[in-house]
């Protein structure tokens, strides 16, 4: 969000409860508007529609919060989960355990920012996997 709009948004939400809408507009109106804008601009949505913004946000935050080593650890963990193993399967060395902990912490933070809970490995496979 552009910085010059932050104060305006803060004013809009100041007296609202977390359940209240900022603007009275339906989800389908937003979704339809996004779909039309994407089609007109040639943006391919890969079947994600508005939900694609969540994927993009998760990936961008992952790049902001994780080092390359932590991203490699995340891929290793997601491979474990794909095979039905525990997330930390085979993570034995002190260095790997530290990478696992920091990568998981970043994943949990991203999920929290998206309104999800902790330990959401299946969601991480969709949002953060290769």
Account of the 3D structure:
- This protein is mostly helical and 130 residues long.
- The protein is built from 6 helices and no strands.
- The protein has helices at residues 3-13, 27-41, 51-65, 68-82, 94-113, 121-128.
- The chain is globular and about 50 Å long.
Count of alpha and pi helical runs = 6
**In angstroms, what separates the terminal alpha carbons?**
27 Å
Low-confidence stretches: none
User: Mean pLDDT, rounded to whole units?
Assistant: 89
| Global structural class | mainly alpha
The portion of residues assigned to helices is 55-70%
Order of helices and strands: HHHHHH
Molecular shape: globular
Share of β-strand residues: under 5%
The value of Rg in angstroms is 18 Å
In terms of topology, how is this protein built?
Blueprint: H1 3-13, H2 27-41, H3 51-65, H4 68-82, H5 94-113, H6 121-128
Helix pairs in contact: 3-5, 4-5, 4-6
Summarize the structure.
The chain is mainly alpha-helical and 130 residues long.
Please name the defining characteristics of this protein.
65% helix; 130 residues; mainly alpha; 0% strand
């Amino acid at each position: 969000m552009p910085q010059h709009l932050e104060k305006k948004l803060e004013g809009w939400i100041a007296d609202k409860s977390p359940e209240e809408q900022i603007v009275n507009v339906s989800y389908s109106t937003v979704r339809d508007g996004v779909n039309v804008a994407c089609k007109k601009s040639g943006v391919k949505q890969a079947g994600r529609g508005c939900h694609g913004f969540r994927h993009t946000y998760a990936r961008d935050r992952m790049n902001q919060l994780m080092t390359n080593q932590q991203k490699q650890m995340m891929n290793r963990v997601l491979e474990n989960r794909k095979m039905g193993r525990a997330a930390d399967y085979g993570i034995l060395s002190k260095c790997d355990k530290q990478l696992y902990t920091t990568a998981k912490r970043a994943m949990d933070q991203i999920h929290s920012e998206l309104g999800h809970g902790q330990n959401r490995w299946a969601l991480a496979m969709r949002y953060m996997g290769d």
